[in-house]
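Page 37, top half.
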Amino acid sequence: MANQKKHPAGTIALNKKALHDYYIEQRFEAGIALAGWEIKSLRAGKGQLTDSYVLLKDGEAWLLGSHITPLNAASTHVIADPTRTRKLLLHGKELDKLHGAVQQKGFACVALALYWKKHLVKCEIALGKGKKEYDKRAVEKERDSNREIQRAVRSKGKDE
């Protein structure tokens, strides 16, 4: 019997900037249509989602702005475009829900993460409402105060 390869597990790429810039309302899991060289690059951890977003056009969802760096040895006969537009695979009801929400004022559809699910690459997308600058500062201030409280609690236990 042939040795079975273990499938990679975990997250490939995160879009931390999206969590900073948007209030996340609803999350969706989408499949992503990739070429063979892209899968090899993602196994090597060469994917980035910084500044990527989802475009809804003609009843389909497209991932724009993602960057998958091609490997030198992956494919020599195909011209690899690292920032090409990739199709997201969603059910019709999910697409309708996304399209309806994006038409409302202030909602945007952003990619949050690329990850492995068994042997497939999935993209977590979300409906987000944009934060104002003062909202970002308030969140940062709250995070700092929570960090200070945790530090004080930890140091109090050591003093005794």
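Page 37, bottom half:
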Amino acid sequence: MDIIYTDEKRFTKQQVERLFLSVGWVSGRYPDRLYKALMGSSTVFTAWDGDRLVGLVRVLDDSAMMAYMHYVLVDPEYQGHGIAGHMVEMVKERYRDFFYIEVMPEESKNAAFYEKHGFAVMPDGVAMQICNG
């Protein structure tokens, strides 16, 4: 498997829609908004098998101190090959001079993946959100 990684936002709306729906994420049902959000993001790393988008990591940052990693996903047909881990390491390298790189796993079962890549559960941390959808 010859996966190519890039930080160029060269994906199409249809490619991100397909990827997000492949993992069952509701964001994929809103391709216009999703594409706009990704294009406006600080950093988007993507993984490609030829012209097929197979993985994506999105980062929002304040340009100096804090980077928030959001959307770490890999097409189910490509999971288990280290693609997500490679993209997380790309994020860590890009933001190595920032004070914080944060991630909020939506499911507690995913915490072990992030711990494997050096992240730690914040002492007394609690995830919170308002969902307007």
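Margin note: The CA atoms of residues 56 and 73 lie 6 Å apart.
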